[in-house]
Amino acid sequence: MAGLAVVVALASGASQWWRSHLAGSLGEQLVALARPGDIQMLSSTTCVYCTAARRWLTDQQVPFGECFIERDADCAARYQAMGARGTPTLLVRGQVQLGFSPQQVLDGLQARR
Predict the structure, then answer these.
(1) pTM for the full predicted model
(2) Domain named Glutaredoxin: which ranges (predicted)?
(3) Which residue segments constitute the domains of the chain, with CATH numbers given?
């Protein structure tokens, strides 16, 4: 039983290290490609996914802009005009992306160099 606990602990630790490694690598790639204005996030003040995306982008030092649909009339109008269905909604060099995925943002930046 103790052996199984050690194996589970090692697997869990390795999994956490791998996720951290991938996040750092994606963050470095995004920092290298993103310029101010390339990534805009339309957020809601109550959106936990927006908070997680904001935290990740900030921790990785990726330049991005953000507006809140409840606080900013222009933001709300852009959100409605694009027919967005949820938050966060990102504009990556003009391309609309629903939800936050570092890989999807990277793909958007690479596609529109």
Answers:
(1) 0.77
(2) 41-96
(3) 2-111 (3.40.30.10)
